[in-house]
Amino acid sequence: MGYNCVVLIKQVPDTKRITGDVMNDDGTVKRSALPAIFNPEDLNALELALQIKNAFGGHITVITMGLPAASAILRESLYRGADEAILITDRRCAASDTLATSYILSCAVKKLDYDIVLCGRQAIDGDTAQVGPQIAEKLGVTQITYVEALVGLEGQTITARRNIGNGWQQVRAALPVLLTITGDANEPRVAAAKKMMKYKKALAPIEVEQKIKAENPNADEADIKELVEHKCRQLEEKGFLIKQWDLDVVEADLSWCGQSGSPTKVHRIQSVVLATKETKDVEPNETAIADMIHELIDDKIIA
Amino acid sequence: MIEVNRKGEVWIFAEQHEGRLEDTPLELMSKARHLADTLGVPLAAVLLGDGVKGLTKKLFQHGADKVYVAEHPALRTYQTNSYAKVMYDLIHKHEPQIVLYGATVAGRDLAPRIASATKAGLTADCTDLQIGDHQTAKDKKVHKNLLFQIRPAFGGNIVATIINLDRWPQMATVREGVMPMPEPDKKRKGKIVEEKMTLAERDLPLEILEEHKRPKKVDLKAARIIVAGGAGVGSKDNFKLIWDLANCLGGAPAATRAAVDLGFIDHDHQVGQTGTTVRPSLYIAVGISGAIQHQAGMSQSQKIVAINSDPEAPIFNVAHYKICGDLNQVVPMMIKSIRSVSRIS
Questions:
Q1: Is A284 close to B250, i.e. CB distance below 8 A?
Q2: A281 contact B CB<8A
């Protein structure tokens, strides 16, 4: 018994914490200065998967697609109780829009046994909320978006409550399903100290390689390769090797990946500069405020 | 996907629930009308439901030339697969060049499913749409009259213009409340095109057990005057100041995300990128620092008064009246001043 859950997560720049420190003088944002974090609603998705596992048993696989550094959030998932972590990293993924991203992730999910696929409702860097439904379509499974509570799970039937904007709706569907989870669904647990001690050593092969190259700047390629293989074997024996997949492993058709797989292109990017309007200074005293109120009445702003 | 089809129509998904049209497709009408006129093609609405033909009148009055009506008992209540299947079939039958959806919960649930099935592009949460040309960097080829899908990204810190060169239709969802609703022209008429649909059991995988709707506690979009409080207000008790000032102006109380997260007021009152976009005559920002996400939802206000104790608060950059001071003193002064004026008149 138990359910196989696949949780799809993303590492994102922390766009919510934009302070003066990360602003350029012209009012634009220094994107590189933003810390990279676990997309908040993806944590809610992981939490729901953990609750399912606690209640019914099963297995949780966490997948992210991104740069090698994204394996940080895979470790974060292991600290919280995920069983298995997979990093999809491949230069050919670059410039993928939501359609290409959903294609690649759906290829990866197809490699696994799954009953429930969970994603955050949306990622805070793009706020599109598109990748979840697009993966569901590509897997040919039922989607339940904007989930704010899991109501029940019995056999092959799931009941969930979803936010419909001006209220909520309770729906039932047969497994397998893909759920997108909102921030209201739960309070994500913090990392467990014991697991953190254990899994902080977990690395993906590409991280092992980066580390060994940094430690042995003068070694030749063959030596590096050998050292990497040795280290990866050691990690694997201890269960600390984060799986690393590329587009060949997931058997993706390259024409649907990256630039060529992305129908949307960027025509132009403009930084938002906070517009300075003509501002009148009003002293915080009764006379000045009364004058302002009168001006607003004269301008027919206040009736 | 469909091929580039220059004669293709401009479509709006006319979202309705229980026989009532959503505001967003109607708000979209004037912009879509402009796009269709620029391209010299008809503007059509696509209406799915059961017994909804009566709604076509309103769609014509707001600017549609044509309404495709797909009626079926299985379409009575929205669900992803049935609606996506009908839209997919209609898109392949009529090959529109542009398909627009409101970025409502249903729109954001439906549009990506259709985009994935048609393998076409989709841009989420646009705040503006234009027609323009794009030159590809590699071969210098000019693609004329594309849909410019303009949206904020990166938490509102950049504005991106997205295009879809050749994997059509060009599709976008458009944010609620960012486009003003056109005035209906009661005399305007159009053509109804009825579409026959076949739906199977597998198109309805969801069983909708229960639905609870609650009316919004406040209609910020309709408010002429908005008084909004931020984290700077300090406490839920102190938020009474915001309610008092709003009451004496006949305005609506509102808040930033930070104030909502702190529990000062309900989410229905939230203005900004993840709340409501407003454009009132007067916006009074109290104890609001002015994060870009908040400004995205209110900078279109006709007049902005900002009260903040920090002279460097970014909100002052968009304010017409800057009051640098303690809100606990300034707000009561404003209330007093407004009361004295209304007593005279």
A1: no
A2: yes
Q: In this predicted model, which residue has the larger pLDDT, A156 or A22?
A: A156
Q: Which residues of chain B have pLDDT under 70?
A: 343-345
Residue B221, number of CB atoms within 10 A of its CB: 18
Residue B203's pLDDT is 94
pLDDT at residue number A21? 62
Decide if B105 and A164 are in contact by the 8 Å CB cutoff.
yes
At residue B296, the pLDDT reads 84
CA distances from A276 to A27, B58, B319 (A): 11, 40, 8
Summarize pLDDT for A245-282 with one digit per residue, the tens. Answer: 999 999 999 999 999 999 999 999 887 765 656 889 99
Q: Are A5 and A118 in contact (CB under 8 A)?
A: yes
The pLDDT assigned to B343 comes to: 63
**β-sheet bridge partners, residue B305:** B284, B321
ipTM, interface predicted TM-score of the complex: 0.90
CATH 3.40.50.620 holds for B10-203: yes
Q: Do domains B10-203 and B220-344 have the same CATH topology?
A: yes
CATH superfamily label, B220-344: TPP-binding domain (3.40.50.1220)
Residue with tokens 């976009």: B277
Q: With CB atoms and an 8 Å threshold, state whether A171 touches B316.
A: no
Closest alpha carbon to B284 in B257, B270, B304: B304
Name which of A18, A281, A296 is nearest B157 (Cβ-Cβ). Answer: A18
Asked whether residue A123 carries a pLDDT value surpassing 60, the answer given is yes
Give the pLDDT confidence score for residue A17 in this predicted structure: 66
Which among A15, A134, A293 has the least Cβ separation from residue B154?
A: A15
The torsion angle over the Cα atoms of residues A28, A30, A31 and A36, rounded to 10 degrees, is: -130
Nearest CA in chain A to B174: A128
Nearest partner of B178 among B70, B297, B62, B324, judged by Cα: B297
Domain spans of chain B? 10-203, 220-344
Q: Is the pLDDT of residue A20 over 70?
A: no
CATH number at residue A174: 3.40.50.620
The three state secondary structure string of chain A is CCEEEEEEECEEECCCCCCHHHECCCCCECHHHCCEEECHHHHHHHHHHHHHHHHHCEEEEEEEECCHHHHHHHHHHHHHCCCEEEEECCHHHCCCCHHHHHHHHHHHHHCCCCCEEEEECCCCCCCCCCHHHHHHHHHCCEEEEEEEEEEEEECCEEEEEEECCCEEEEEEEECCEEEEECCCCCCCCCCCHHHHHHHCCCECHHHHHHHHHHHCCCCCHHHHHHHHHHHHHHHHHHCCECEEECCCCCCCCHHHCCCCCCCEEEEEEEECCCCCCCCEEECCCHHHHHHHHHHHHHCCCCC
